[in-house]
Amino acid sequence: PTIYAITPTYSRPVQKAELTRLANTLRQVAQLHWILVEDAAARSELVSRLLARAGLPSTHLHVPTPRRYKRPGLPRATEQRNAGLAWLRQRHRHGHGRAQPGVLFFADDDNTYSLELFQEMRTTRKVSVWPVGLVGGRRYERPVVENGKVVSWYTGWRADRPFAIDMAGFAVSLQVILSNPKAVFKRRGSQPGMQESDFLKQITTVEELEPKASNCTKVLVWHTRTEKVNLANEPKYRLDTVNIEV
Ligand code: UGA
Ligand code: MN
């Protein structure tokens, strides 16, 4: 199956660095299609050039987050992930239930992904799950597995979540995406940290989840976050004689 990685991304000083690192990972994965969705009113030159040179099959989308949703404490990238989902459904609309084999994964632009992670998710039949490192106020969060089934969640944060899992902790088969055409990320009523649960509730149940990474005992992806860059010494006048893309 082809792996479809949906990556929301937005303009900021570290964007090109993040996307360069992510491209260097994804390029090494066979049969991967990168769906990069800019949080912007138009496709940027920076991202267009980067994708053109990334050396992997890709699709470049864009949709701006409405201003009222750009606030601390509100979920991020809702519209961008939905644009990726809509593109996938549109592209496979002639499948009529006989979808080409595919697996969807939400790959934020700042996380760290091992190559083994992609081997694991490729065998997803419906929805698969695995641990995520450096998240939830702990070294890791993970689905707790007994007799091959997810029975609970090891988490330090909002243990009341129906699926106590980060966006980087699951993959969904294309078939499931196509047979649940209304499953999307919702703004209304979605509290911080509930996006994953709200989405997964629409397409699966905890009993149905397929544990990966040795029954969820290995960390193959890390929820790394990049430090905000210090630009305190950027010149206000006497700018550099060339304008360099960073
Ligand atoms: C956590 C989760 O890991 C994310 O999957 C979830 O979207 C996010 O919380 C949330 O609060 O909604 P966190 O590291 O806090 O992640 O979020 P970011 O990495 O800053 O953003 C997630 C993705 O959305 C990134 O790919 C980022 O580039 C993108 N993003 C962020 C936008 O497209 N627009 C924005 O305004 C902010
Ligand atoms: Mn992040």
Automatic annotation (TrEMBL):
GO BP of this protein: carbohydrate metabolic process; chondroitin sulfate proteoglycan biosynthetic process
Catalysed reaction equations from the record: 3-O-(beta-D-galactosyl-(1->3)-beta-D-galactosyl-(1->4)-beta-D-xylosyl)-L-seryl-[protein] + UDP-alpha-D-glucuronate = 3-O-(beta-D-GlcA-(1->3)-beta-D-Gal-(1->3)-beta-D-Gal-(1->4)-beta-D-Xyl)-L-seryl-[protein] + UDP + H(+)
Pathway(s): Protein modification; protein glycosylation
Subcellular location: Golgi apparatus membrane
UniProt topology in membrane: Single-pass type II membrane protein
Cofactor(s) recorded in Swiss-Prot or TrEMBL: Mn(2+)
An example Gene Ontology CC term for this record: Golgi membrane
Record-given protein name: Galactosylgalactosylxylosylprotein 3-beta-glucuronosyltransferase
Organism this protein belongs to: Heterocephalus glaber (Naked mole rat)
Gene: B3gat2
Parent-record interval covered: 80 to 325 of 325
